[in-house]
From TrEMBL:
PANTHER family: ACYL-COA SYNTHETASE, MEDIUM-CHAIN ACYL-COA LIGASE ACSF2, MITOCHONDRIAL. It is an enzyme of class 6 (ligase). Residues 7-367 form the AMP-dependent synthetase/ligase domain. The keyword Cytoplasm does not apply. Belongs to the ATP-dependent AMP-binding enzyme family. It comes from Nonomuraea endophytica. Residues 418-496 form the AMP-binding enzyme C-terminal domain. Its EC number is 6.2.1.3. This is Long-chain acyl-CoA synthetase. Keywords: Ligase. One of its GO terms (molecular function) is long-chain fatty acid-CoA ligase activity. Coiled coil: none annotated. InterPro entries: AMP-bd_C (IPR025110), AMP-bd_C_sf (IPR045851), AMP-binding_CS (IPR020845), AMP-dep_synth/lig_dom (IPR000873), ANL_N_sf (IPR042099). Residues 136-172 are annotated as: Disordered.
């Protein structure tokens, strides 16, 4: 141990440009180090101890990075909050994570203020002035820029959308390691893809930082000495421009990004020098085989794929492996194990679909405050997120179907139960089912099928009224794109909804049931 980790690298080379904000502002490593040190001193004065948590509702950029760097060197859990959420959804996470400080950007002041009601006023901080929040300078001004005493590795605690409605924090035991040594261990993930430390390397952050993988890959690239180049909102041509401008070598993307990039006119695609690209990694949703072929033809053998979960463990397909096994999401990582089982938990033969279980050596997790859910997804020391897939004779994993109901739209996991619960509240809804239907651009879009209450006229007006009732209660990205009506919902006598029956007609003529 001893050469990697942001804090170590920043002391050795304070002039290194460690981050570039979406507006082009460059941040030197030494300045980010000083800011994160001051924040640790200030939050410790507020009473924070190792094992405590902080929440940040901040956009992509250096402000969020400073929160991450402070927490990870002071033994705290850092939870980046999804900025599409409504006040009550934010409040749930702030309260459930037992945050001892909540930091908000003015961009999200409206919902952030609603969400902040669950935390004491003296623990609410704003990056720029927001009424009812203390300025973050209360924590940093006049504090030493030198390293705090008793540094110990912290961790991120991301919230996964819960199939039963409420999200759960995925919490790992703190390692007790020196923060730089802990960070250096994290870099193992990127070395699996062949990514090398040092400069010149730049990592393009293409998605919101509240996603586990985005924090993981970006944070790890930073700990390897790469420059983080942040995007505020994703745009296809801007991606190419930033790759050329900053000599981007690696990034983390989803198949929706590829689809949008491929629809750019040929002259736009050829305008940019992409020779710096080395490791363009994608995940989060199955990538259609033709799309992946087109990306490999355009960018060359730099497109890597993996399959994993917030909970840990996963697979990896190099460009060469994918070409030999088109459609695969890869083989198990050296520190991970795959197990495909039938409904009774028994392993299935090669080529037979079953539930995918994974484990990652030496990495245990729990769903915070939910031992039942933690136990329910386990098979001895393996866990599942409920996906269905099979292994070929060479050990390569292929996905067949998502957890019966999960919707993946633009790389984001969306859980129907949460949406159904909100729609059921409407007085004109007798019964409702929500599921994903094919969408050329997003992979899936959200469809609601509603059985109207007695005496209510189905039609566009009723659909509009039902959707409008979600305002302020459910993030827009979870709203159904469209509503269809049905006279009677297909349910078994025991009340079980036959969702496949509803879903099937929409998927006719489409290759996969994901």
């Amino acid at each position: 141990m001893g050469t990697l980790g942001f804090w170590r690298l920043a002391q050795a080379d304070p002039g290194w440009i460690a981050a570039v904000d979406p507006d082009g502002t460059e941040h030197r490593a030494g300045d980010l180090l000083a800011r994160s040190n001051q924040l640790v001193h200030g939050l410790r004065e507020l009473g924070l101890q190792p094992g405590d948590g902080i929440c940040g509702l901040v956009p992509n950029g250096a402000d969020g990075l400073v929160l991450y760097l402070a927490a990870l060197q002071a033994g705290w859990y850092y939870t980046p909050v999804n900025w599409h959420l409504t006040g009550p959804e934010i409040a749930y996470i702030v309260e459930d994570s037992e945050a001892k400080a909540f930091i908000v950007d003015p961009r999200y002041a409206a919902e952030g203020s609603r969400g902040a009601q669950v935390i004491e006023p003296h623990r609410r901080f704003a990056v720029q002035p927001i009424e009812g929040f203390r300025p973050i300078t209360d924590l940093t001004e006049g504090r030493p820029t030198t390293a705090p005493q008793d540094r110990t590795a912290g961790a991120t605690m991301h919230y996964t959308s819960g199939t039963t409605g409420k999200p759960k924090g995925v919490r790992r035991k703190l390692s007790g390691l020196d923060p730089d040594d802990g960070a250096e261990l994290m870099t193992f993930l990127l070395t699996l893809f062949g990514i090398t430390p040092g400069r010149p390397n730049a990592h393009l952050v293409t998605a919101p930082n509240y996603h586990t993988a985005v924090t993981q890959f970006g944070g790890t690239a930073l700990h390897m000495g790469h420059t983080l180049v942040y995007m505020d909102r994703w745009d296809a041509e801007e991606t190419l421009r930033l790759c050329e401008r900053h000599g981007v070598t690696n990034s983390h993307m989803v198949p929706t990004h590829f689809k949008r990039l491929l629809t750019l006119p040929a002259e736009t695609r050829e305008k940019y020098d992409l020779s710096s690209l080395k490791w363009m990694i994608h995940a989060a949703a199955p990538c259609p085989v033709p799309v992946k072929h087109q990306m490999l033809d355009w960018w060359g053998e730099v497109v890597y794929e993996y399959y994993a979960a917030t909970e840990g463990g996963g697979t990896l397909a190099t460009p060469q492996e994918w070409k030999a096994h088109p459609g695969t999401v890869g083989k198990a990582w050296p520190i991970s194990e795959l197990l495909i089982v039938d409904d009774s938990g028994e392993p299935v033969p090669t080529g037979t679909p079953g539930t995918i279980y994974m484990k990652m050596m030496g990495v245990a997790f729990e769903y915070k405050g939910d031992p039942d859910k933690t136990a329910a997804n386990r098979l001895k020391d393996h866990f599942t997120v409920g996906d269905i897939g099979y292994l070929d004779e060479d050990g390569f994993l292929f996905l067949c179907d998502r957890k019966a109901d999960m919707i993946i739209s633009g790389g984001a996991n969306i859980y129907p139960a949460e949406i159904e619960n909100e729609l059921m509240i409407h007085p004109k809804v007798a019964d409702v089912a929500v599921f994903g239907i094919p969408d050329e651009e997003w992979g899936e879009q959200i469809k609601a099928v509603v059985e109207p209450a007695e005496g209510c006229e189905p039609g566009p007006e009723l659909a509009e009224e039902i959707l409008a009732s979600l305002e302020g209660r459910l993030a827009r990205m979870k709203w159904p794109k469209s509503v269809d009506f049905i006279a009677e919902m297909p349910r078994e006598p025991n009340g079980k909804l036959l969702k496949r029956k509803l879903r099937a007609p929409y998927w006719e003529g489409h290759g996969r049931a994901i």
